[in-house]
Amino acid sequence: TERTLILVKPDGVARGLSGEVLARIERKGYVLEGVELVNATAEQLAAHYAEHEGKPFYQPLVDFMSSGPVLAVIASGDGVIAGFRSLAGTTDPTTAAPGTIRGDLGRDWGEKVQKNIVHGSDSVESAEREIAIWFPGR
Ligand code: ATP
């Protein structure tokens, strides 16, 4: 069955939203296969965000992701990759649809990075690549 890599980003952990995010994943019917609170290393973030290297928001993004612990999650279930991205909502929390994690729980905090609570893999290839970054050996 399909797997995806989800991160509750430092803003979500700091605001006490980890349980809310996990609850939404479970209520949707997906299975939690791994949950771990981690302080992201520079190596993990460089690998995770390699596709954004060179973009104006890259360094602020890496700094933000290093600002506190993240909750790394493996969730499984048929269609979980697209399903979680649907639960998360679009990237910008200001306009993400109500009912989604970002739409219900996020906002613009006036900073260079969009603090948008969660990350979710966007394809089978990125899910397997990202699981190897956050859960080596899984
Ligand atoms: P994620 O990959 O975290 O699920 P996403 O796929 O919606 O989010 P990406 O385009 O992969 O968004 O961007 C990764 C992250 O970089 C975003 O979640 C956000 O925190 C930040 N980001 C993306 N675009 C911008 C932007 N234009 N300005 C500031 N921050 C941004």
Automatic annotation (TrEMBL):
Active-site residue list: H119
* InterPro entries per record: NDK-like_dom, NDK-like_dom_sf, Nucleoside_diP_kinase, Nucleoside_diP_kinase_AS
Which part of the chain is the Nucleoside diphosphate kinase-like domain? 1-138
Name-wise, this protein is Nucleoside diphosphate kinase
Chief place where the protein resides:
cytoplasm
Family to which this protein belongs? Belongs to the NDK family.
Instruction: Cite the NCBIfam families for this sequence.
Output: PRK00668.1
Q: What is its EC number?
A: 2.7.4.6
Q: In terms of domain of life, where is this protein from? A: Bacteria
Reaction(s) this enzyme catalyzes, per UniProt = a 2'-deoxyribonucleoside 5'-diphosphate + ATP = a 2'-deoxyribonucleoside 5'-triphosphate + ADP; a ribonucleoside 5'-diphosphate + ATP = a ribonucleoside 5'-triphosphate + ADP
Originating organism: Brevibacterium salitolerans
